[in-house]
């Protein structure tokens, strides 16, 4: 599979299989990522941490871990389950992740990361990629970044997504690490110039497709995180604007209609409505009446017997509010 032009970042508690199904309705081309899944969860957990909907392809599994043997075992399982890519997390700065010796702290151990990538590549026939930062703590020089890339690329990784901020491993929360360290897009651009044969994508602070297009003049791919979740209708124009697909743009109402059968199937298995609608809250962001949409879902979707009528009522309330504001 070629480097992805546009992808949605792996986001813990956000990019679960319900969100990914929802996102896929709006874009058939965007590469979707799972939430980060640890090797321990896959190998020793009680749940099926590799479950997904077949409609989600192209789909990448993001793994958290630093044991080459365990990572290879998980990559092989994911390959057998039909995933399109394996991605190693070398960017998450949380204390819990550091205690497990994976995430951003692995930037300080490029040889180990290279060994992990090599172990996975030996057992799968799909891309093995790395998502990382531009540096950690005081180790934030360009030389530090290039040594990391060189070392990992030497073991066969040719696809990196760079979150254009460094990570502070001590003193900042994961949320603060997504906001406080300064963005340095130029450093990622320089990386592509210095490693022209590698696929280099960028992540961090990207909010519009116009911004994505600018980055794509310099780089191979763009990964969007929070904006793709909080303002998901952004995805409706990804295929036409970034991939040149000629087709009518799906409306928000059409997105909802396509979600209803999926919601009903989920409810029949004993699932709760809010497991899915929590991902749909931002669908009408910025439009008149959107507050009513959010409020009705938030106040009613969690109730024990809530069904698709809650979604339909939320749409009606939103349109009624919007019409009254125009009068």
Automatic annotation (TrEMBL):
Gene3D superfamilies: 1.20.120.1460, Aldolase class I. Residues 8-314 form the DUS-like FMN-binding domain. Keywords: Flavoprotein, FMN, NADP, Nucleotide-binding, Oxidoreductase, RNA-binding, tRNA processing, tRNA-binding. The active site is at 92 (proton donor). PROSITE patterns: UPF0034 (PS01136). It comes from the Bacteria. The record marks 89, 175, 178, 291, 294 as: Interacts with tRNA. FMN binds at residues 10-12, 62, 131, 163, 203-205, 225-226. Its cofactor is FMN. The keyword Oxidoreductase applies. It catalyses: 5,6-dihydrouridine(20) in tRNA + NAD(+) = uridine(20) in tRNA + NADH + H(+); 5,6-dihydrouridine(20) in tRNA + NADP(+) = uridine(20) in tRNA + NADPH + H(+); 5,6-dihydrouridine(20a) in tRNA + NADP(+) = uridine(20a) in tRNA + NADPH + H(+); 5,6-dihydrouridine(20a) in tRNA + NAD(+) = uridine(20a) in tRNA + NADH + H(+). The keyword Transmembrane does not apply. Its EC number is 1.3.1.91. One of its GO terms (molecular function) is tRNA binding. Catalyzes the synthesis of 5,6-dihydrouridine (D), a modified base found in the D-loop of most tRNAs, via the reduction of the C5-C6 double bond in target uridines. Specifically modifies U20 and U20a in tRNAs. Belongs to the Dus family. DusA subfamily. This is tRNA-dihydrouridine(20/20a) synthase. It comes from Shewanella denitrificans (strain OS217 / ATCC BAA-1090 / DSM 15013). The lineage of its organism: Bacteria, Pseudomonadati, Pseudomonadota, Gammaproteobacteria, Alteromonadales. The gene is dusA.
